[in-house]
Amino acid sequence: MAIPISNPHARRIFLERQGLSRPPHKALGRDGLYGLIHDLGFVQVDSIQVVERAHHQILFSRSQTYRREDLLHLLEKDRSLFEHWTHDASIIPSAFFPYWKHRFRRREAKILENWRKWQGEGFDQAFVETYERIRSGGPILSRDVKAEDHKSGGWWNWHPNKTALEFLWHTGKLSIARRENFQKVYDLSERVIPGEHHAGEVDHDSFVDWACRAALTRLGFATSGEIAAFFDIVTPDEAKAWVTAHREELEEVLIGTVDGKPRPSFAFAASLPALLDAPEPPARIRVLSPFDPLIRDRNRTERLFGFFYRIEVFVPEAKRQYGYYVFPLLEGDRLIGRIDMKADRKAGALDVKRLWLEPGVRPSAGRLERLQAELGRLARFAGVEQVILRNGWLG
Questions:
Q1: 82-86, 231-235, 313-317: which range is least confident on average?
Q2: How many whole angstroms separate alpha carbon 224 and alpha carbon 233?
Q3: Using CA atoms, how far apart are residues 192 and 176, in angstroms rounded to an integer?
């Protein structure tokens, strides 16, 4: 018989699993930062910098002692982290690299013929030339392989050697050695990934078992579809078969949702007592990145928190409901609203345009005071000196 888990309990479990129940002021340090990313499974990378880049803000929202230079060290010096794809570009523990080899092989089989057709004649030669250039000459940026007469454009207008770089990276032959002004610098994977991880191999069954266990551990509770979607490295059918094969380890649970329709899910039976004892998260308000893992699965966000969120970057301005890049607000175990703001570095200010609170959430003096305290912390992290609240920011 399925065990019911109330909606407040489910929210606390998920928040704890996502690192948002930890004291945000507790010193993190380099080892703690690695542990946090390992516990999360990955941290998404995105180029947009309205206030701060997504990966930095995701980590800062969990610990306000997070230091960018610690992440840089782990990526570029210690090499305990690497950049690749989950559902999107992400920072991932290098210890996971042997499992990503399965993704590389699947990706290569899926895209090789399509990319050849897309690029046409010369693709295979560009592949060989680009790999050999890096092997013999060392790391390069994509601009280093651009022909002088090639006109830049979107991905559809990549130079063949740029395509080769991306293909070699997607299939694991190259890795990102570092970034320069956020542009990727590529090198051979064996020169970037620590030897013990680069040489590691796991068979197919062990790969699927690890991927499903790692996903369910980090989600706390999930359906087979949610397990497959977490890292996006196993198929829904593989995750479903894994659940069936490991039912003796799993407990069926009924997750309470905001609409009152319990959702059947699974959790590890051995972990369930600890999950049900998940602590209440800190009461302070925190500004989340639009790419925060708490809200990545939009449907899960709506079921657990009753919070509808979409990024409107690609929506024409006249059709946007909120704004170009609007940040969700977390207070305790509730998503209470969203805020439109931008770090104006020339003016040295965090420019706050508009606040929208969810229905039933009052703009009380205490809540606004907590919000402004968080905005002050975020402004300092973004490297600006003050917070400017525009006229009409409360709506």
A1: 313-317
A2: 13
A3: 7
Among 76-85, 310-319, 386-395, the minimum mean pLDDT is found in 310-319
Q: How does pLDDT run across 259-269, given as a tens digit for each residue?
A: 999 999 999 99
Tell me how far apart the alpha carbons of residues 44 and 57 are, in angstroms, rounded to a whole number.
10
- 182: tokens are 């956020």
Residue-wise burial string across 63-97, b where 16 or more C-beta atoms lie within 10 A, e elsewhere: bbebbeebbebbbeeebbbbbbbbeebbbbbbbbb
* Residue that the structure tokens 């290098």 belong to: 94
Q: What is the pTM of this model?
A: 0.94
The 8-class DSSP code of residue 149 comes to: T
The answer to whether the beta carbons of residues 240 and 234 sit under 8 Å apart is no
Q: Tell me the residue type at 222.
A: A
Tokens of 201: 């191999």
Count CA within 13 A, CB hemisphere, residue 95. 12
Determine the residue type at 58: I
Residues 28-67 have pLDDT tens digits of 999 999 999 999 999 999 989 999 999 999 999 999 999 9
Structure tokens, 392: 């009409």
* In the chain, beta strands by DSSP E: 3-5, 43-44, 81-85, 89-93, 140-141, 174-180, 183-188, 250-255, 263-268, 285-287, 326-331, 334-344, 349-357, 386-389
Residue by residue, DSSP assigns 112-128 as HHHHHHHH-TTHHHHHH
pLDDT score at 109: 81
Q: How far apart are CA 217 and CA 215, in angstroms?
A: 5
Q: Is-contact 326 46, C-beta < 8 A?
A: no
Instruction: Please check the confidence at residue 152 and state whether its pLDDT lies above 80.
Output: no
